[in-house]
């Protein structure tokens, strides 16, 4: 008797205690199938030793970026939810055990036939193997499973969109770094040019062919360009930090220079607006995710409406009953018992819960429709903006490219005029400033053009 009570106490206490808690900040252990799926989505990419190309940066970002990793785990969670709901249509098999202490003696087994011997006891222990299977739910399970499948598809599309946005962000920062390096090179060239001009001015002042004020003006201009150089160098360092963050690196390595070309070798074709819109509606991942979410919500409405229908389940059990303490009567203290049958539940009054659930799901459906309509308007705006940016940047590149040659020739002429004593120092400094502004503008427009092309691909849903 003591062993029996100890066993029962162990079962009770085992239900009150749990395993060691899951640490929230440590990596989540994955099953072998999940680990292989994770490696397929996030293949290991070696960190380059020296230079970094755009393709390498994209591969590293897709493998290491935490946003992509989080979207991947969200997709895994959606798959698990689908498996959980899909498993509810299969039979449930479990073991149920109990110990009951009654105030009065109770029959160990129900009456099977008249005249059966009865054994009574205050302490009854039971153990049953119980099976339950849904037979009819009014379509609730079917709609829940279909909704879960669509939500899984939506999570997969969101993962794809997250990867596309990451590719765009990496490309944009990459092009800006290339442009910023060219800007710094232009500033360094201006510093060298001004320093050489300052040396010539010193020689002319020593020969009494130039005034000392010319030297002062050149020094002021040189100091201004040098502070610009420091400022632009800080911008480049910040851009390296942003790129490292997108790549999933904890520290930025400015010595690892990005390698690429801002200028396109061939003419890039740009689609028409309606063609781009049609492509976006068929290929853009976030639009497909919104459509799947809308269809899933429609199934959620049908599942909620099925709550008004009867529910029929198959129930069966087989187990044993035995007396744990003193008994009264004749018969065996241990015997088996079983049952099988159908159970039906018809909702009559639920306090308005079913109607409220249906109204809630319908409101979610209306909200999902409006979010899809908003996304359609946003897609049109993004494509129109990207097309205008591509066209504008291309025209500005053609205009500024020709002015660079003119600015360089103008600076050369003004320097020669000043050396011959027929020009003014102000004209030389203005020509140098014009050349610097033209070159920096040109490189930044090149980065804007490449970013606009990437923006157009992102808006159309191209990988």
From TrEMBL:
Residues 21-40 are annotated as: Disordered. GO terms for molecular function: efflux transmembrane transporter activity; porin activity. This is TolC family protein. Its main location: membrane. Residues 21-30 have a biased composition (Pro residues). InterPro entries: OMP_efflux (IPR003423), TolC-like (IPR051906). It comes from Anaerobaca lacustris. It is found in: Cell outer membrane. GO terms for cellular component: cell outer membrane; efflux pump complex. Belongs to the outer membrane factor (OMF) (TC 1.B.17) family. Keywords: Cell outer membrane, Coiled coil, Membrane, Transmembrane, Transmembrane beta strand, Transport. Residues 358-385 form a coiled coil. The keyword Coiled coil applies. Residues 31-40 have a biased composition (Low complexity).
